[in-house]
Each structure stands twice: as structure tokens, then as C-alpha cells.
């Protein structure tokens, strides 16, 4: 579904949530009033007993019950509409012009949307990620009326980044719908079976990591130990290619990509790894004989029927 076609649903969501807030405020007021009346009723009930009578208290307000039903109705509508939005975002397309994107001298490409802007969709996605609009994912900004891609060299780079943005939005939607994302599952299993698993877990899902950070934290002193860390990034990028969960910032410095952050979250859930893995839990490299890097691709690895099966853990959402 095109981004612009999801806009009306997101706009309706904002309206429904606003109405829900109004009803919740009203409900809170009514419940407070009932609470005060209940306190008064308890006193009157005791006085009635002292009089030798049975106190006939007032039943809960019909207005209160009506508002409660309205609140539940709004919640149900919001839930269903959000599901429709996520279903549309699973395979979202962009209303961009059918032309070769231009890259300026600063390595930036600005692709303006055709037709109406998508302000509500962008704000919806930003709220899902607990951030603000415009939405930024791996140096790609999603605005209401355009997409701005930075740090690119040519149109092919731009197209790759647009595809990555589309894929990541789709992954967000699948996670929200409690569905497994095949790319995430494949990379998670690959990392768990990798000869460098302990290095991946030592990174602990941090946004930025460097060779020096790992050398220091893991108390690596020999060149053999340090080479193993370098090989982790080099061999992982070779094997995973476009599914490599990091972005290279500078020599020896990497940032976990948006895709990588989703991989780490799923990895922790599937393999019951603490999201704040302690350094002490990482095995000393000298105790493990390093295998020579295998010339294999991710697809070849996944075709291996001997890959260990693991029960699907806690749902993401």
C-alpha cells in the first residue's frame, strides 16, 4: 500500500485517540465522584444500623457504565485501525517520481513525494519508535513531503537506501503485528551459530562500538586476541552482505544499524540472553581455538538442515 493511502487511517487514529482521552478524563471524574459517594454511603449505612434499619444505597451510576462502554469501544476501534495501518505498512511503497534520483555535491539526495503529504503517517511511525518527526533511520530521513538521503555517492546508493527504509518500515509493522520477520530470524540464527557469538553478545546492542572498546572491556592484550575481534566484523560483513547489522563509521568504529537493533532485540528474546550482557560472562578467547573463516554466504548457511532448532520465545511488540 502506498504511504499516501495510509495517511487517512493515521489521521483517523489521531482523532480516535483524542476522543478516547476525553472519555478517559470523564471516566476518571465519574469514578472519583462515585468513590466519594461510596464513603458517604458507608457512613450512612452504619447510622442506619444504629437506627435499626437497613440502608438502601444508590446503585452505581448508569452514566458511569455508559462511559466505560464508550471507552472500551474507542479502544477496540483504535486497536483494529492500528492493525489496518500496520498491515498497510508491511509492504509499503512510496509516492515518489519515476526518475533517476539526483545526488548533490554534499552526498545528499532529496526525493519529494508526489501528491499530498503524509504528516500523520510519519508522526505515527515516530511515535512507534518513541522519537519525533521527521523519522530518521540510518541516515535516511522520512519527512511528510519528502525523503532525504545523506552520505550517498550515486543514484544506486540512493535506491539501496530507499529499499532499506521500505524494508525496515515493513519489519516494524511485522513486529507490531507479532509476526516473525524472515530476515531478522535468519540473521539471529546465523549469529547464534557463529564462531564469534561471544563477541556479538559482548557488544550488548550498543549503538556505537569500536575495536578499542572491545579490546579494553574484554581485556584483550595479544595480537591474536585482537585479530579475532577484527575478524568478527570483517567476516560477518562478508557472510551477511546487505543484512550486515552494522554501519561502518570509520576504520575500527561501527554503529549498530536500525536493522541491527531489531536483530539484537530478537536475539535476546529467542536465545534468552540478558540485554545487558556482563563482560564477565564472555569466554576468554584463548580458551577457544579459532576456526578459519569459511567462504560461505548466509543463504548457504541457512540451507544447512542441521541448523539447531530453537523454540520461539517471547513475542515482540
Could you list some keywords that capture this structure?
single chain, 317 residues, alpha+beta, 4-stranded antiparallel β-sheet, 3-stranded antiparallel β-sheet, 10 helices, 54% helix, flat
Q: Kindly report how far apart the N and C termini lie.
A: 22 Å
The main sheet comes to: 4 strands, antiparallel
Low-confidence stretches: 277-317
- Determine the number of helices (DSSP H or I, runs of at least 4 residues): 10
Q: Largest beta sheet: what is the strand line-up? A: 1-4-3-2
What is the H-and-E element order? HHEHEEEHHHEHHEEHH
Question: What is the 3D shape?
Answer: flat
Rg from Cα: 27 Å
> How many structural units, i.e. domains?
3
Strand tally, please? 7
Structural class: alpha+beta
Structure at a glance:
The protein is an alpha+beta fold.
Describe what you observe in this structure.
The radius of gyration is 27 Å and the shape is flat. The chain starts with a helix and ends in a 15-residue tail after the last helix. The longest helix has 48 residues, at 3-50. Helix 1 (3-50) crosses helix 3 (119-128). Strand 3 and strand 4 (146-149) form a beta hairpin. Helix content is 54%, strand content 8%. Mean pLDDT is 84; it is low at 277-317. With 317 residues, it is α+β, with helices and mostly antiparallel strands. It folds into three domains: 3-87; 109-176; 182-302, no CATH class. It has helices at 3-50, 62-89, 119-128, 155-176, 182-193, 197-203, 211-217, 223-240, 258-270, 298-302, and strands spanning 109-112, 135-137, 140-142, 146-149, 208-210, 246-250, 253-256. The strands form two sheets. The protein has a four-stranded antiparallel beta sheet with strand order 1-4-3-2. Strands 5-7-6 form a three-stranded antiparallel beta sheet. It is built from ten helices and seven strands.
